[in-house]
Amino acid sequence: MCNHDCCAMKTALQLRDLKKMLQKQLQQELENPPKKILTPPSLLYSYENIEMIANFIMSKTRTRPKFGIVCGSHLAMLTKVIEHPIVIDYADIPMFPKCTTHGHRGKLYVGTVRGATVIAMQGRFHYYEGTQLAACSMHVRVMKLCGVEYLFLSCSSSSVNANHKVGDVLLIKDHVNMFGLFGNSPLNGPHDERFGQRHLAMVNAYDRILLRKAQEIGHEIGNEKHMHTGVYACFGGPAYETVAEQLLLRKLGIDAVGMSQVHEVIVARHCGLRVFAFSLISVPSVENSKFADRSLAPGQQFAKELVVRLIHAIENGLIETPIGTDKLIHSQTGYAEDAFRAADATLIINRKPEV
Predict the structure, then answer these.
(1) Beta strand pairing status for 150-159 and 274-283?
(2) What is the pTM of this model?
(3) Does the pLDDT of residue 336 top 50, yes or no?
(4) CA–CA separation, 11 and 19 (whole Å)
(5) Residue 230's beta-bridge partner residues?
(6) Keyword Glycosyltransferase: yes or no (predicted)?
């Protein structure tokens, strides 16, 4: 006599046939996986997308900021210098990436610092979060279309130079782009001339005039012992570097290593922004591991004062005019001699590695 399982096609014979059919389909899919065409990084955010995001921000703030600030890890308090801020959550901004790293709050601040208009990001995007480099740096182009001319970048980093301690601040004069050494760039993919030229010189990536002024401010504040100038390198993370990697970086003349910022500098220079960058040493070098618990507060306080004074100096014409960009762009025959001088390349070449 027929039962329910029989009518519902649940007999042992039917179940066996169904299992065979599913196994066959799975095998076919494994042998012939569906083709996936990845979107080139440069097409993740088109010019129209960036323009739409910038227009959204300006419609909420009614402001065209002149200065852009990116607050790195342990540096969220930089937004406290902004007067009368309008705060927008990243989640409320169309097409804006998500910020998942602890301590990066995912908020955009627009306001003033001593009368100068400012836009600041409290939290950035990292490659190790699964975000493409083009998306990790898209906010730089958004800031550019909002009106930004000067970009201040900050981050925390591990010390490579044994003379730099936790809580010190490194003013960045140059970088080593580990991503770029292996062909990974935020500019990869089809090019849009509206963002900038296809090939750009990076010999003056960090504005020498802004760097000199920052050094002067450090001396005025009396922070010479805890302020350094040096070279930064970017690793992918999220794991910190090994002892062997630290020793290798030291031989290359690198002073600190982190997991961000370099791709933002590339995009900033690509669209013509003047860049000043610094890093708060938050992890000691291999020799100084016993000082890992040293307070970051002195460096954080210095960073706040430095940003305020540098913005004030620029806004009130207290620094030199920019170097002519015509001497900093490479030609078919090579880089201009002035560009090499600006890069201060001999400092790295002649530097004796520490042991």
Answers:
(1) parallel
(2) 0.82
(3) no
(4) 12
(5) 172
(6) yes
Contact 46, 70 (CB under 8 A): no
Q: Which two tokens stand for residue 197?
A: 């030229």
Burial (CB count within 10 angstroms: exposed 0-12, middle 13-18, buried 19+), residue 156: buried
Q: Are 139 and 44 in contact (CB under 8 A)?
A: no
**Segments in 286-335 forming alpha helices (H):** 297-315
Give the DSSP H/E element, type plus range, for residue 245: helix 243-251
For 57-110, how does the pLDDT look when each residue is reduced to its tens digit (9 = 90+)? 999 999 999 999 999 999 999 999 999 999 999 999 999 999 988 888 999 999
Q: Are 179 and 133 in contact (CB under 8 A)?
A: yes
What domains can be seen in the chain, in order of their start residue? 45-350 (3.40.50.1580)
The full 3-state SS of 259-278, as one line of letters, equals CCCHHHHHHHHHCCCEEEEE
